[in-house]
Structures are given as structure tokens and as C-alpha cells.
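=== RUN LOG ===
request id: a7f3
mode: sequence -> structure
chains: 1
length: 277
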Amino acid sequence: MRNIRSFFKMLFTPVTIMMVPHSRTKPVSIRVPLAGILFSTASFFVGVVYLFTVAVHTVEYHQMKERLSYVTDQFLELKSTMVSLKQAELEFKRLFSLESKAEVLENAEFLDTGSLDMKVLRSQIDEAMRSVTDIKKYIAEQKDIYRATPTGWPVPGYISSRYGYRNHPQSGRRQLHTGIDISIASGTEVQATADGIVTFSGKTRNSGNVVVIEHGHGYTTAYAHNSKNFVKVGQRVTRGEAIGLAGSTGRSTGPHVHYEIWKDGRHVNPSKFLARR
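=== RESULT ===
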């Protein structure tokens, strides 16, 4: 009991604090209980710790706000990407539901997300996007090849002279016939058998009016003995487009279309391409 009284007596023992100014002004003294000094010191340190804690929480708040904004942006971006992938998936399902390769290629037109693990999801989406891009590229290339490959008949006639060696109808000599002759009434429209660009359209001595079309992927087609050509050099044409009228110009025994196909600089048998669909 005596120790407690001594302790409280010490706490409330006044302490004189003297402030001595560097001038002629008299010194100022303040008497403060020791308990007051201890309380003020403790309050100061508590206040410093509190302010430091508030500052740390403020910094953490702004960092969390920035992270939330970043995650929100990533989520919206991923959501947009998933929508695009879904559209691409539906498009591919529609294409591959077609019955034939030709239908797929003819119709190949491209339009060019609980708790999320962003890194994993981003990796999966990037991989899916690469796959979709590869599929689009493959189909586009196959479509280009398909559109550049001669398909079908330039006129709806019948073959009067086939590809290969034959006796020439005028000279009687045996020589290579580098195309096929398709007999047809004069004035019938001659149609391009593949997409391409006209590289020759004019008159020659032996073959009369001739149209030559470069299709790409090594393919070239020629249409000879036309009564009239509709196209000019440099003009783009599509499969089925009329490029002239059948006739009997040049060295010819009657109205027909001499039709040739060249692949990588060499003539090939056009008959192999007539039945393609």
C-alpha cells in the first residue's frame, strides 16, 4: 500500500520546465505533473503510429483500386474475345455442316467468361485465337485454290476433238492437239471456268479471236476461235462470267471453242476438269 502511494505521489510530483529565450526576455517556467509529461509523450507516439497506419492503408487502397481497374479491363477484353471466338465457332460449324468441299469453299466468308484465373484464361484464349486464325487461313487458301482451278465447261456443247495426238482435220498430218474442241452453235456465250485476270484478248492468225486468262496457283486457260471477245487485257473475271461468243474464226472447220488448260507452264488434258463440281 505504501508503494502504491509512493508511485502516485511520484506521478503527480510537479516538474518544472524552463524555457530560456535567446534575448533579454525573462525565462518562462512551466510546472507540469510528471504524469502529464508521460501522457503527452505516449499520445505523441500513438499519434505517429496511427498516422503511419493511415498512410499505409491509403497507399494500399489506391493500389487495390488500380488492380481492380486493370482486372476489370482484362475481364471486358476477355469477354469480347470470347464472343468473337463463339461467333467464329458457329461460322465453322455452319461451314463444315455442308455436304461437299466445293460448298464449303464457296461459302467460306469470314466476318477477317465465378472466379477467374486471368493468366490461365488468357493463355487458353491466345491458343484458341491462334487455332482459329490457322483455320481461317487454311480455308482462305483452299478457297483461293478452288476459285483458281478450272472447273466445268466453258460452253454447253459436246467434244468433237479430244486432247492428245490426232490427224489434223485440215492438213491430215498427225500432231499433238493441246486442248479440246467443243462444238457449239455460233454466238453461244463462252464462260470463264475459274476466277482470274485476262492476260490476252485479241486476234491471231490460226486461232482467230482468243482469250487467255491467268488464274494463279499455276493455272492458265485459253479460249479460241471466238466470234467476239467481251474482255480486255487486265480485266478481272470470275467463274461463269461471259468472256466472248463462240464462233469459227481463224483456221476452223466449223463453230466451236478450242479450250486449253495450262498448269505450271505445261498444257494438261482439260477433260479431267470438265466433270468437277
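=== NOTES ===
The two ends are 115 Å apart (CA to CA).
Residues 2-57 form one domain.
=== END ===
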